[in-house]
Amino acid sequence: MRQPMVLRLHASGIPIDWLTLEEAAVLMTRPSEGGLVWSDGEGAHRLHGGTSSLTGCQSYIDIPEVMGVAPPTHAMLAFEHTGFNRMLCKYREGLRCAYCGDLLTRQALTIDHILPRSRGGRLSMLNAVACCQRCNSLKGSRTPEEAGMALLLKPFVPTMAEVLYMTRPRHMTPRQLWYLKAQFRNASLRDYLSEALAA
Ligand SMILES: [Zn+2]
């Protein structure tokens, strides 16, 4: 997500998703459809439209950084990421190996079953971590205890706010971050990712 995005929240503050500026403009021009209740960071972006043949003036619309909507636009309000997602697993670890802490690309990271598959371990957000190829091979089909390899983080199931943070646009603003952080539930995400961001 390279272009600026708008953070959409339920009016009560629960995050829903990231919108493109164009999607946000639709909500601004047709508020009855999107249930727009409030916005914050007004005028952060300006989208230009067509030029009026009568006045010669070009139309525009100012887009905020954050939009609060009601009623819920879709079922994602109840979203808790209970399934497994490779990309989120890697972002959850801050793109670091969960065993040695090395910072890697998404492509270079592998997925390790903490309790090995051969021992009945399921592929879930709680039983999987992202790690480097070397640590994955070293651990093999052993538990971390058996292999003498400590996990640097406690795996967790991310909340919607945490998912939106992990998949954040490149140009996420401090204001958008403030709204998301208010909804973080997993302390390890705070510590681990703030360290990853500082690196
Ligand atoms: Zn490693």
From TrEMBL:
Pfam families to which the protein is assigned, alphabetical: HNH_5
The keyword S-adenosyl-L-methionine is annotated on this UniProt entry: no
Ranges of residues in domain HNH nuclease: 84-137
Cited InterPro entries: HNH_5 (IPR029471), HNH_nuc (IPR003615), NA-targeting_endonuclease (IPR052892)
Top-rank lineage group of the source organism: Bacteria
UniProtKB keywords: Endonuclease, Hydrolase, Nuclease
Nuclease keyword on record: yes
Molecular function as annotated in GO: endonuclease activity
Listed PANTHER family: OS07G0170200 PROTEIN, SLL1193 PROTEIN
Designated name of the protein: HNH endonuclease
The species this protein was found in: Kushneria sinocarnis
UniProt lineage: Bacteria, Pseudomonadati, Pseudomonadota, Gammaproteobacteria, Oceanospirillales
